[in-house]
Prior knowledge:
Radius of gyration: 20 Å
Distance between the termini: 35 Å
CATH architecture of the domain at 128-200 and 209-214 and 340-371: 3-Layer(aba) Sandwich
CATH topology of the domain at 128-200 and 209-214 and 340-371: D-Maltodextrin-Binding Protein, domain 2
Strand content: 15-25%
Helix content: 25-40%
Structural class: alpha/beta
Shape: globular
CATH superfamily of the domain at 128-200 and 209-214 and 340-371: Periplasmic binding protein-like II
CATH class of the domain at 128-200 and 209-214 and 340-371: Alpha Beta
Amino acid sequence: xxxxxxxxxxxxxxxxxxxxxxxxxxxxxxxxxxxxxxxxxxxxxxxxxxxxxxxxxxxxxxxxxxxxxxxxxxxxxxxxxxxxxxxxxxxxxxxxxxxxxxxxxxxxxxxxxxxxxxxxxxxxxxxxxxxxxxxxxxxxxxxxxxxxxxxxxxxxxxxxxxxxxxxxxxxxxxxxxxxxxxxxxxxxxxxxxxxxxxxxxxxxxxxxxxxxxxxxxxxxxxxxxxxxxxxxxxxxxxxxxxxxxxxxxxxxxxxxxxxxxxxxxxxxxxxxxxxxxxxxxxxxxxxxxxxxxxxxxxxxxxxxxxxxxxxxxxxxxxxxxxxxxxxxxxxxxxxxxxxxxxxxxxxxxxxxxxxxxxxxxxxxxxxxxxxx
Length: 372
């Protein structure tokens, strides 16, 4: 992973959820980057403006400076078309800092967005059945507008990718059965939202995590979530820049969250001790008791959680270890129509991104979660 400095989400428990988990987090993240210009050559950082990156800038630092609702994850979402990655900023890049209501400022001489021409997959003679579940705000929940922002994006992708294809979205809240039973036996055609591991490292993943690579095909990424690492102020781990520097540490992750990112970086026994706490709050309690050294999960939920517990002055971020994880639609490899379905979803997703509708769906979804 690239070195960086610098996440969001409340209510997301990963695409790895288990039934009965009381709180699901939702998404977002850290970010950083470096550059080299003098600060007097660019405009000051402010909400609802365009800003030119200078040496030492990070998305986290910029979002903090302007007190951006949704944090650096919101800033990253607004600039995915400019940034090569959440941890990479280049001197001279012009980024958009969202307005207070989450809307984007108008870019100076920008041209109208190019609209893609969808290449639809073959139309099935029956509705395509999508499987998802609730309690995963802001992504999927029957009680959220549109079923959550991810559900809304999938629906719009199907409508744009192949207007002739009928489809239905069904909520089954036994998340543990989705990848192990309901999708493999063909009860449903596709499922969402699921995190995809780095499949080039499938040989070192556990069997449960490897099946995401070996038994499923995935859509293009619908959403990039940033995963953060946190420790106590004054901890010997406060300034680490490499995963290997955590060897010997005790890491806490809330029960039900994925672990393939840790496996991919060698953060497994015996290198580290991984503790799955029953709740997010319990991880922070264990950190305060010095029963663990590091807490790691999706950034914004994490940062909202420890803020609500009044721990802002005690917790420090380890931005160099933050990683980007991507959420997808999955289709079983044994589905004979799987590739055609993914072709439709991907074509529609491309149109969503190019038209700007993707950002508007995400903005509305996040605002709804923050306000509630």
